[in-house]
Amino acid sequence: MSIPTPPQGWRSQARLLPMLLWLNMAVQLLAGAMCLLLATRVDTPTDSVDDPGLRMFDAWQLLTTATGLVFMLTAIVWLVWQRGTARMALRWAPELSQPAWQLFNWVIPLINLWRPLVDLRALHRVFTIVRKDEMAADGIRGSIELAQVRLDDFRAATTRWWACWITFATAQLVAAWIVAGASGTTGARAGFIASGIADLLALPAAFLATRVVSELTRRVADAAGLRA
């Protein structure tokens, strides 16, 4: 017994999401590197509109805008993908949080510090157990041990990802606070450094997120019988 074949829209989102996460890594890397480079140039006088430092600052502003747009697009696709995953999981586990609540859990203060992690682990467990039951019914030995290994591996992977995500989010808030209160050359330098570090902290968070998405997608595909 397997779950119904996931809709084509969900499968497209599952393929698109890792690519968007990799794109996030690229733009965040560029933005972070430019921030740190600009921090070394805040003492350089700007006497002309053709000054390289001024052109670099303008390019950084455009890149920051692009970074925000890519992040927003990734967040939207993530939420739609998770909503679709939750809707499929509810067929097997009605006790799960409703898809709408799983989305709200990302934006409700304090709750968003831990509840999205719990939701993703619960989704993974549903599809892993579904596959385990199917394997056991077919008489495949070791299915219980294999399922437990997958559950443990996913828990460890999500722990690392969540720690990086919270660190990145905290660094972004700190950077925004520093930039808001910055004044003079010293303040500008501190703002660029803080923003650069925060941008670079997105790299491990996004990389580990690709692992989480890929693993959960594989478990859905296994449970639906789309993979051997």
Automatic annotation (TrEMBL):
**DUF4328 domain: which residues?**
61-218
UniProt keyword annotations, A-Z = Membrane, Transmembrane, Transmembrane helix
Q: State one Pfam family annotation.
A: DUF4328
Q: Give the protein's recorded name.
A: Hypothetical membrane protein
Regions crossing the membrane? 20-39, 59-81, 161-180, 192-209
**Keyword Membrane attributed:** yes
Q: Superkingdom, according to UniProt?
A: Bacteria
Which species is this record about?
Propionibacterium freudenreichii subsp. freudenreichii
Q: Which InterPro entries does the UniProt entry name for this protein?
A: DUF4328
